[in-house]
Input
Amino acid sequence: MTQSLHSMHPTSTPHAHRTADPDYWPDVARIPRSTAVRAVVARRIVERALARLPLRIRQSHQDRMIPGPDRQTGAMPTLTLHDPDAFYRRIGADGLIGFGESYMAGEWDSDDLVGLISVLATHVDELVPAALRRLRGAWVRRRPVKDRNTLDGARENIHRHYDLSNDLFRLFLDESLSYSSAVFAAFPATPATFTAAQHRKIDRLLDLAEVGPGTNLLEIGTGWGELAIRAASRGARVLSVTLSEEQRDLARRRIADAGHADTVTVDLSDYRQVEGRFDAVVSVEMIEAVGAEYWPTYFGTIRRLLAPGGRAALQAITMPHERMLATARTHTWISKYIFPGGLIPSREALGRDTTAAGLRVVDDTGFGAHYAETLRLWRERFLHETAAVEALGFDHVFCRMWELYLAYSEAGFRSQYLDVRQLLLTAADHRPEEYR
Output
């Protein structure tokens, strides 16, 4: 998606009856001209696969229901097709990208979007027959070369997501403006406990890195400055780097308002351009934006920047290794519309690249259920603030895109397809007892 999202004009009609602006959303406004054979094949594969899963398909224009398996008890999520022909044509032409674009176009809905996607994620290996999975490489799209995270490409990729609007993110994040998983004291989480949970996450990372008075800390990926503020309040001196101009500008204001302008520096800089040595390095959910091609460089840079005895604390989303390998070769709906150039690593990939960089994983803790709760709170707030989102100039297609993105991500953690972990890394050539 190359169009700017800052000047979209909201309308007041129900989303199901709106059309997508072809200038902003060319692939949503245009139903692909897939061959009749591909559309028919897609329909047969999808209907056959979904009929075996604990969900229902409703074709609203015919009031036709395809039931789920009899073994399922209780409520099942329903996939309601407003335009079945367009839905199957998009899937026949573009697979899961078409599935997402069909939602953006208002061609399908669900009474339980997270539940529906959770079912699909849990049974992802059953959706396509094994014989066709072996032919996957012949029809899936490859990731665009322009999305590679070169020095210029990384800045453009970050700009396309994080520079949308600070006001947009303010509408659904908690008051700390933390855009990563919180760590809750108890479930279910509530908006009232959200900021404390975000601070708990930050403090655990700072504790892992032993950040305290006099610590020289590098933060890779500033966000909106909350971690830098809390590190400075411990007496650390902080250099924080980001590629987002919007985040840099607001982070600097928030840091100054908190009284830490003298001890925190926020630079618009690529992590690969940082020089110096640091007692601690902290990076929160930034590696997902690095791209697999540059993971060795990322970890090599951390190793280069760590002073003797230094510690690096990372928070990273992970996915199963085989799924990561398949995703790495594929242009997905997420990589097209949400995080261009990004890829979620597996624990195996993290272990391989940290070891190659001369780093040792000293601590590794997963807490995926906490991310599911984090995303639930974001999604509920986003949906509540839809009118305010549109008032900022983002149209109905953007709102449906972000609703699907947040639901898709929440479902990934609820189905345990995704996890999130906090890692402590140290230099492999130092003795473990030095880090106790």
